[in-house]
Write a structure and sequence with these properties.
The protein is mainly α. The chain has seven helices and no strands. The chain starts with a helix and ends in a 37-residue tail after the last helix.
């Protein structure tokens, strides 16, 4: 895993500033913004996967609908998987509130501190477990570009089995660097927070690409990709069964 490369790759393009601005602007468009950015990010992942060593594609405003359509699938998958976790977090929060009330009533400050520590630890563990579940399904949805085939338990279990340690390390790396970048962004009149969030998002998707490549290197199951569109050049010869083209012959001179 090349962790630093997940942040550095964005600047490999001459148009890196425009690509970065796309990540910033997407934060101000509810729902649709993350979908478009996610679709573009999976275009990057697929391109890097198909063409090893090739530069990643720049954002193309003419393909907004394509990005949006592609970004819908992982977005929906993440939401559906996160709903049960949200219910668990609500239950944990309610238990935490009851414990805080009891601790305050009995004037037990140590009990309150313990409850706070346990609460935040439980939330951190739950979010980590969510990522372990979400990553293989979201990765499959974004690459296969479909909803039902994305929910492959066989693929998810095999993915976690082969690269679970790298998944945990990648999440810890993003959390650590995210805190630092967010603090630096706050110092730049708070505007830098949005730039930091865009950088973290791009780094997240590049780490997904690295995890998938590592998974394949360890004998994992390849995700079926849609065939690339075939472009025909006008200079190509016509097929054998095509009728001969008419040509204009010069008139006979008298």
């Amino acid at each position: 895993m090349k962790y630093i490369c997940s942040y550095r790759f964005l600047f490999d393009s001459p148009n890196w500033l425009m690509n970065l601005l796309v990540g910033v602007v997407s934060q101000f468009v509810p729902v649709l913004g993350p979908m478009v950015l996610g679709g573009y990010a999976f275009e990057i992942i697929e391109t890097l996967h198909r063409r090893k060593g090739a530069p990643y594609p720049d954002f193309d405003t003419n393909q907004l609908m394509k990005y949006l359509t592609r970004g819908v699938w992982p977005f929906v998958v993440i939401v559906l998987i996160s709903l049960p976790l949200a219910a668990i977090i609500i239950i944990v929060s309610m238990c935490f509130g009851v414990g805080m009330a009891i601790g305050s009533a009995k004037d037990h400050p140590f009990m309150i501190l313990m409850l706070i520590a346990v609460f935040y630890l439980a939330i951190f563990v739950l979010l980590g477990l969510r990522d372990l579940v979400v990553i293989p399904f979201a990765l499959r949805a974004g690459l296969i570009q479909d909803f039902k085939p994305a929910f492959s338990l066989e693929f998810a279990k095999d993915f976690v089995k082969r690269v679970w340690l790298e998944m945990v390390l990648a999440e810890l790396f993003l959390v650590g660097t995210g805190i630092v970048l967010s603090m630096v962004g706050m110092m730049v009149f708070c505007v830098g927070v949005y730039v930091a969030a865009a950088l973290i998002t791009y780094a997240h998707y590049h780490l997904l690409y690295q995890l998938y490549e590592l998974y394949l290197e360890r004998g994992g199951m390849a995700i079926p990709l849609k065939p690339e569109p075939v472009t025909t050049s006008s200079a190509e010869p016509p097929p054998p069964d095509a009728p001969p083209s008419e040509s204009v012959m010069p008139a006979d001179e008298p």
